Amino acid sequence: MQDTTTEIIRDTTPLFTNDTIVFGILMIALGFIFYTSSREEGFWKKFYGVVPALFMAYFLPALLTTAGIISPDWTTITETGEASKGSTSLYYMSSRYLLPAALVLMTLSIDLKGVLNLGPKALIMFFAGTIGIVLGGPLAVLIVGSIHPEAVGGEGADAVWRGLSTLAGSWIGGGANQTAMLEIYGYNQKLYGGMVFVDIVVANIWMAIILFGIGKSARIDRWLKADTSAIESLKDKVSDYAKSVDRNPTLTDLMILAAIAFGTVSFAHFGADWLSAYFTSVVDSIPKGITRNIFTFLDSSFFWMITITTIIGVLLSFTKLRAYEGAGASKFGSVFIYILVASIGMKMDLTLIFDNMWLIVIGLVWMAVHAGIMILVAKMIRAPYFFLAVGSQANVGGAASAPIVASAFHPSLATVGVLLAVFGYAIGTVAAILCTVLMQLASGA
């Protein structure tokens, strides 16, 4: 019998679709957050004593999206009944232009020796996060499958475990690894959008929790019995240096900072385009199979852009340009980071949590296992909340969000998040394959 079922397409056009207007709304929201968080008495002091400003920079745009005022993408139904797609380019602008600019400005004053002195706990927590994702997938399939078997069913290319493999790639590495897993396991691309949706919802919920915890990091560190001396020493050393070179920036200072930031963005994009094109041909020359897909992250221009930016920032920290920290380099970098946070928050429509509920449940159980293992390991090795938060986001969020979380503790720590996230790209596909094999066994396929 012929299937006459048709998909019902809703008009999801937000109130404002113009990028310029939406950007202005996000900036007003950020201005409101910083103005209210600077109040030293009354309601706002009590409010921000509980809710971190960085969390509000993420959550307020999410509320605006949920209310239909703004949106990262939408569907418009014309009077003739035709559907057309629309989207904003603000996240692309923030992640491709402002993120590398922020990274180089925040890295100018980095104390590389101090970062290395942070010890092995950062790497241990990163790998704990990876193990949490690898084990969390099959455990989520077992738990949810025992309650609602259809949620983890499907045959052939429609098998849910194949789709979940793309989540494993994304949550250990990033977008390139996610695409590699889609290629390796051949999940039905018509259903792939549902997995992308779960990725966005669950990863953003977890990021919100991480950001909220930053405001309680001192209390969490006491509970973990963590030794934060190396982190505090690095923060104090960078802060003392910033005070020693502090000055009222001139117009020349500001223009030089702009040249450093966006000159680096330009060079990083140029190098990324060249290297990604080169490695695309190298990867394409490898016979199709797992070996080829392991190295697909090398043809990602985003990977090379972040890598080149970080290298430039570290090299410049050994030059006289380091003194521009006194002119406000990391402060300007923080402005760019907050704009990126707002553009990420805009991608979260809270009402969509109730769509594809069982897939969301799988994702939430999966992330809960990841969180549980990280907390257990942090407690065992007495790792500070900083390492837990950054190690997790280096896996789940990648190079776009790991430096956001790291810089929330101190701008000088942003590089730690970047380095771990880049490492995640390298191991993402291999670890995701292991996770997928376990999920296939757990689903009984």
Task: Please give the structural blueprint.
Blueprint: H1 19-37, H2 43-50, H3 53-66, E1 73-77, E2 83-87, H4 90-107, H5 112-116, H6 121-147, H7 160-172, H8 175-185, H9 192-214, H10 217-224, H11 229-244, H12 251-284, H13 290-294, H14 301-316, H15 329-345, H16 357-381, H17 385-396, H18 402-409, H19 414-443
Antiparallel strand pairs: 1-2
Helix pairs in contact: 1-3, 3-9, 3-15, 4-12, 4-14, 4-15, 6-7, 6-16, 6-17, 6-19, 7-8, 7-9, 7-19, 8-19, 9-16, 9-17, 12-14, 14-19, 16-17, 17-18, 17-19, 18-19
Number of strands: 2
**Alpha-carbon distance between the termini?**
28 Å
Indicate the overall shape.
globular
Order of helices and strands: HHHEEHHHHHHHHHHHHHHHH
Short structural summary:
The protein has 19 helices and 2 strands.
Task: Characterise this structure.
With 445 residues, this protein is mainly α. The protein has helices at residues 19-37, 43-50, 53-66, 90-107, 112-116, 121-147, 160-172, 175-185, 192-214, 217-224, 229-244, 251-284, 290-294, 301-316, 329-345, 357-381, 385-396, 402-409, 414-443; strands at 73-77, 83-87. It is globular. The protein starts with 18 loop residues before the first helix and ends with a helix.
